[in-house]
Amino acid sequence: MKLATLKNSRPDGQLVVVSTDLTRFASAGRIAPNLQAALDDWQTISPQLSALAAQLDAGDIAGQVFDPSMALAPLPRAYQWIDGSGYLSHLERVRSLKGSKDEQLQSTRPLLYQGGSDSLSAPTDPIVATDPELAIDFEAEVAVIISAVPMSATREQAAAAIRLVTVCNDVSLRRLVLDDLQNGFGFFHSKPSTAFAPIVVTPDSLDGAWRDNRLHLPVRIEVNGTLFGQPNAGTDMHFDFADLIVEAARTRNLAAGTIIGGGTVSNRHDESLPIKRDGIGFACIAEARTVEKIKYGRARTPFLKPGDAVRIGAVADGRSVFGDIAQIVALA
Amino acid sequence: MKLATLKNSRPDGQLVVVSTDLTRFASAGRIAPNLQAALDDWQTISPQLSALAAQLDAGDIAGQVFDPSMALAPLPRAYQWIDGSGYLSHLERVRSLKGSKDEQLQSTRPLLYQGGSDSLSAPTDPIVATDPELAIDFEAEVAVIISAVPMSATREQAAAAIRLVTVCNDVSLRRLVLDDLQNGFGFFHSKPSTAFAPIVVTPDSLDGAWRDNRLHLPVRIEVNGTLFGQPNAGTDMHFDFADLIVEAARTRNLAAGTIIGGGTVSNRHDESLPIKRDGIGFACIAEARTVEKIKYGRARTPFLKPGDAVRIGAVADGRSVFGDIAQIVALA
User: Are A46 and A140 contained in the same domain?
Assistant: First the structure.
């Protein structure tokens, strides 16, 4: 089942089911007013959404043309957005870049940060920064949306709570990261609004690409139309989504509709940019710059500047599985 | 105007207006389904709520008996909970305790952390911890709920966005703070569910106690029935709520319904516990322990243990302005 949230006059938008080929949609407004309401009562609501999706795919309902530019984030405002660190090579590359005080890698327990979830960006919203000199970067990630998870949940409970999968862009202002980390209170100013792909998909509708609590698909990133990276999200993911959820629930319950990010997708390699046709590349600029510093003594790839375009999408058989995030950098 | 959210079958509870003397309530269900919905359209909704409150106070509506034990947190789940650090003496006392790597005080710009907002505790919910050895502490704070604030907001915009005031208990697991800070990703496991008083009050209904973007009232804390502190929230608040909101909006928009905490209320003094009749005391255990370490060479006041009771409320003319938070520590 594939779902999206379209713009309407309400802050939580209009829940719709999307056809398997992403070309058409049907409103789910008579089943649930929005995606959060569906997640609040998933056992009851999801079979109804699934039945509607089957009717749409069978042509029993004509539906309307699905235009990704009409999509909001699946949860335009969420009660929780927790970003994890599933990929150790991202931490290795970025921590050395930002000179973290604690260089020891956390390979036994994943790092998590509490992100702002009140204003999540639509897939085509601009990346708005107040200053072009903030070292504006993207981070292409896989994210899951879960049902409620109790404190001290087991891996089995965590895995069973995964309802929907998508990709997101955890926009980062690298120049503010060090300040945020040094004051000890964690990321805040350095992590403005995260953007989400237009479509969320249930794990069972991912045609086998969802296995071992990981998405086994390349996430393709283009900057200004040029391929920047296509790391496979199922490769080198040291902590899977069950691990991340278990860690998030160590001292607290997690409410339905909590979004968990897997961290910047990152595969181990030492290639630098420009990426070769079958190269892997990077899912954020900071990693590319670290590899360049090691290889060439200095970073070559610039951070984003106003007007730059970033496109992010997970790809299967040449098609964008969740639709693309396509953002342009703008000044506030 | 005084509002509360009472338990019903829905996750967001039932919005009610409460009489000025906190003895009676009337359902506001015909005006707005819940407090978030009221905040989403405050210009339209608040005059209607205010009119209902006037009818209740005038006796035109009988209302029902207000029982604080039926209250949820005003926003049982919120889109954002940001905790600030308005009181420097709290930072001074607690930072030396926890051995923060960066001891330099942030007197020019307030620290903020992004808290979990998906599961906020009712005023009488237990404080649930997985382990009694986690150094369970309370933090008595003033909090405001705001309407939407744009990125790079001015102090005037920030002050004008303050809709509702209350007190909260930012429960802290001190033994996990150092881990959270050292990994650099900020508070996470050390900050489980924050609890809120049953009543939220508009600034204009605080009888002059709301001035200069601060609440000028003592916040009274009892542990197991013994007075622990009564610092005045309007005293020694270096950063006021407008400062905190401006800082929170530096790189991002803030959605309606964002909750901003002022940080643990803390007045400058060097008295230790037990508190004298007119003493000031502390709004968290960690501060008391720091003063004891300096005075006596060791901390005397224990952290909370299962079964301990904490009571927190702001007091005016001997009455609890927002109703009390009254929690008992329990093991998961």
Answer: no
Of A118, A252, A258, the CB nearest to B80: A118
**Structural domain ending residue among the three candidates A38, A70, A102:** A70
Asked if B77 reaches chain A (Cβ–Cβ under 8 Å), the answer is yes
Judge whether B318 is closer than 8 Å to chain A, CB to CB.
no
Closest chain B residue to the Cα of A118, Cα to Cα: B79
Residues A104 and A222 in one domain: yes
- Clarify whether residues B175 and B258 are in a common domain: yes
Residues 6+ apart with CB under 8 A from B147: B39, B42, B161, B163, B256
Q: Å from A171 to nearest chain B CA?
A: 11
Helix (H), strand (E) at residue A142: strand A140-146
Dump pLDDT digits (tens) for B35-63: 999 999 999 999 999 999 999 999 999 99
For residues A64 and A95, state if they share a domain. Answer: no
Same-domain status, B127 and B272? yes
Distances (CA, A) of A191 to A73, A181, A188, B252: 17, 12, 6, 9
How far off is chain A from B51, nearest CA to CA, in Å?
A: 25
Whether residues B141 and B120 fall in one domain: yes
Q: Which two tokens stand for residue B77?
A: 């789940």
Angstrom distance (rounded) from CA B282 to CA B287: 6
> Residues of A with CB below 8 A from B103's CB?
none
**Residue of chain A nearest B176, judged by CA positions:** A251
Q: Is the ipTM of this complex over 0.85?
A: yes
- Taking CA–CA distances from B84, the nearest residue in chain A reads A185
Q: Which of residues 113-152 of A touch B (CB under 8 A)?
A: 113-119, 128-130, 134, 151-152
Q: What is the pLDDT of residues B177-210, one digit of tens each?
A: 888 877 778 899 999 999 999 999 999 999 999 9
The answer, yes or no, to whether the previous bond of A218 is cis (omega within 30 of 0) is no
Residue A209 in contact with residue A216, Cβ under 8 Å?
A: yes
A181 touches chain B (CB under 8 A): yes
Whole-angstrom distance, CA of residue B76 vs CA of residue B196: 9
CATH for B189: 3.90.850.10
